[in-house]
Structure formats: structure tokens, C-alpha cells
Amino acid sequence: MENIKNQLLAKLADKQAIIGVVGLGYVGLPLALRYAQVGFSVIGIDIDKHKVDTLNAGKSYIEYFSSEKIQQAQAQGFRATTDFSVVATIDALIICVPTPLNKHREPDISFVTNTTDTLVPYLRKGQVISLESTTYPGTTEEELLPRVQSTGLLVGHDIFLIYSPEREDPGNPNFETRTIPKVCGGQTAECLEIGIALYSSAIDRVVPVSSTKVAEMTKLLENIHRAVNIGLVNEMKIVADKMDIDIHEVISAAATKPFGFTPYYPGPGLGGHCIPIDPFYLTWKAREYGINTRFIELAGEINTSMPQWVIGKVIEGMNNQGKALKNSKVLVLGIAYKPNIDDMRESPSAELMEILQEKGAIVAYSDPHVPKFPAMRRYHFDLTSVELTPENIQSYDCLLLATQHKAFDYDLIQKHAKLIVDSRGVYKQKFSNITKA
């Protein structure tokens, strides 16, 4: 064991190890680029041939990663492939695949298990496998461990298994892959030692924990903390609205307190891969232990109800102008899940568009970061982004502000819109054509 472990440690220390990143999305791609940047040979693996071909052509498909960064990584040895047989040549495998919810809002870890099953025939002694996908506590031990050991390889002796949750925050200029501390748990003490070596070579700070379960739970706590607080402020928004109080003014005032308060902001629903999903991973797993996570589930109910509440404000705003929603033209402003990026994962805007369409509205959108509505698992719109000219703005009965991109000219929008429903608190002043949502 010591010989196998020490050989891998030496490879990682000398940057002679080949790094394989499985899943080249918003988590996997920045990680692959980071390892290439520090001098490792990196192979990106993805089942999406379009992604692979785009990367190998030196182009990026994620807005905030320039094609120049891809080309720099290629010059340092990065390449992408759909061929999983390359796994046999790789020393460190990092799995970054989606973990969505199914239609019953239960964990769907099929991407993780199917990926692992595809890797298994190519596994060999002297490799480390790291799962980064967000999941429930016990996944690494219950799902990955038996699959890996089905090869006859002993985890902690022949091959090493770790869990290290992703912490990417797309579009955040204050943090990058290198500077975000990396939590890491190993299946055994030897696995953890390898995991620390793997991530220390590319990340400024690695935070070791005692097990993969602890690492899995850490990721859930981080995002459930946010989900619960966003649920609180969303409920406060509904109360404040009934009292004719601007919740954003309240939050700004409360945030002046230098201790004991962290500002969270309401919105039209939750977006991104983590916050709308992670609470349900824990509540599902908790039932196995006979525990009902009422507090977390209540926050989830509040957050998932927000799109319907916002549409109610659209209907209210249009009623005040003597118009029905049915057959009216509604333009949704911003469909990425958060400002200034092109990431559509779990975006509440897509649900808003679906509800509007179901209620008979003629729906369009404007988003400078998403020129064409992308293919999504649940939502299907054959639409392209509308340019915000005075004439176009005036042609819509209602503009629903769902994502507050900096690129929008809010003065132009306010000047020419018949009605704006502001779900993000962008407009601080009161205007006759603005309804706060």
C-alpha cells in the first residue's frame, strides 16, 4: 500500500500525474483550466460531443471563460474527449456531473452512478477518484465505494476515493477556483492524504474533514443556510408588501448593523444548481433515519411558491391598468439565474415564462447574456432575446424584471415601458408604471 500511495503522492507533487475531469460544465471546466494552469497534463471528459469539439477548437461555451483561456490551457496540454477509455491513462479522476431532482423532487444521482459505472472497466491501481457533485451524505460510501471495489481494487490500498464538494460561484469577480477553500473528506486516512495532495497542488487552502459523509453534509449545510435565509426574507417580502413597506429599504437599513445580521435578498424564486436543490437532498435522506426536517422543508415551500406569487403581482399590475393577462404581451427581463452571467441552471425565469404562457400570455424575453433560449430538461421555448429599443419596449403590455443584469438600461426601460413588475428591487423610486414584486 505504501508503495502505491507514495508513488501517487510523488506524481502529484512533481505534477507528473495526469488529471482527468469528468463533466465539463460550470464546475468541471474551471477546475480543468486551473490544473492546466499550474502545469498538469489535463484531459477533460464529457458525453456532449458539441462541448468537446468546441473546446478542442479552442473556443469557450461559457460566457465568462474566454476562448483565450481555453487556448492557453491547450498550450499547456489540455484536451477534451468523449472517449472514456482514456481513463486507464489518468491518475486523478474528478467527477463533476449534475445531481438534479426528479419530478417528485427526490434526488436523481443517476448521472453520478452511470458515470461511475462507465469508469469502472478502466480503473487500475494507483488512481484517485474524487466526487465533487453535490449529493446527500452517504453517497460516496454507499454508491461509489461498492462500484469501485467491484473491480477487486481495495479502496485505501490500491485505489483512493474522496469527496470534495464544488464551491464555484459563476461570475463572482471576488473569487476564483484557486482562492475558494476546498473541503475534502477521504474514505480512509490514506485516501484523505491523497486528496489533500491532489487539491493542494491547485487550490490555496484545503480543509480536511474526518470522512466523506462530513464533506457531503458540509456542502448541504452551506446551501441550506442560504436557502433558509432566503425563504425567511421572501416571506418577509410578502408581509412587507401587504403593509406597503419596501423590503429592500428594510434590508439596506438592517445591513448597517455591524454584527449579528447578514443581508439576504428576495427574488422571484431560487436559481442555480445548488440552492433550489440541496435542501431536498437532505430532507430525502433524513427520512431514512425517521427524521422530518420541517424547518428546511418549510423554507423550500416558501421559495418554490415565489414564482406564482410574482405572477400574481403581474396580474395585479395589469388589472390596475385595465388589462387581462390572457393574450397580453409580456417581456421577461433577464433569464439567467443570477446577474451578469449566462448560466440558466434552475433559473426561476424559465418557470415564470412557463406560468405566463399557461395563463395565456404571449411571452418573450430579453437577456444580453443568453441570445437564444437554450435546450433545457424541463422547459422548451423557441425564442431569441429581444433587443431593448424604445419601440420594442413600448410594444409590450408588461415587462417582468426577473434578473437584474448590469447591461440593462433601466432608465430607458422605465421611460418607455407601459408596466414594469420589478421582482428584484432595482427601482428605488416610485413610478406610476412600476409594480414591486
What does this structure look like?
With 437 residues, this protein is of the alpha/beta class. The protein folds into two domains: 2-210, Rossmann fold, CATH 3.40.50.720; 234-436, NAD(P)-binding Rossmann-like Domain (Rossmann fold). Helix content is 39%, strand content 12%. The chain has 14 helices and 13 strands. The chain has helices spanning 2-13, 28-37, 49-56, 67-75, 110-119, 139-149, 189-200, 212-242, 247-254, 278-287, 294-320, 348-358, 390-394, 410-416; strands at residues 18-22, 41-45, 79-81, 92-95, 128-131, 160-163, 182-186, 206-209, 329-333, 362-366, 398-401, 420-422, 434-436. The strands form two sheets. Strands 3-2-1-4-5-6-7-8 form an eight-stranded mixed beta sheet, sandwiched between helices. Helix 8 packs across helix 10 and helix 8 runs parallel beside helix 11. The longest helix has 31 residues, at 212-242.
Descriptive terms for the model:
single chain, 437 residues, alpha/beta, Rossmann fold, five-stranded parallel beta sheet, 39% helix, globular
Shape: globular
- What is the CATH class designation of the largest domain? Alpha Beta
Indicate the structural class: alpha/beta
CA-CA gap between termini: 61 Å
**What is Rg?**
24 Å
Question: Which spans have pLDDT < 50 for at least 5 consecutive residues?
Answer: none
Helix share, percent: 25-40%
How are helices and strands ordered from N to C?
A: HEHEHHEEHEHEEHEHHHHEHEHEHEE
Q: In percent terms, what proportion of residues is strand? A: 5-15%
Q: How many domains in all?
A: 2
Q: Indicate the CATH topology of the largest domain.
A: Rossmann fold
At CATH level 2, the architecture of the largest domain is 3-Layer(aba) Sandwich
With strands numbered from the N-terminus, the spatial order across the biggest sheet is 3-2-1-4-5-6-7-8
CATH level-4 homologous superfamily of the largest domain: NAD(P)-binding Rossmann-like Domain
Number of strands: 13
Largest sheet report: 8 strands, mixed
Mean of pLDDT = 95
Number of helices: 14
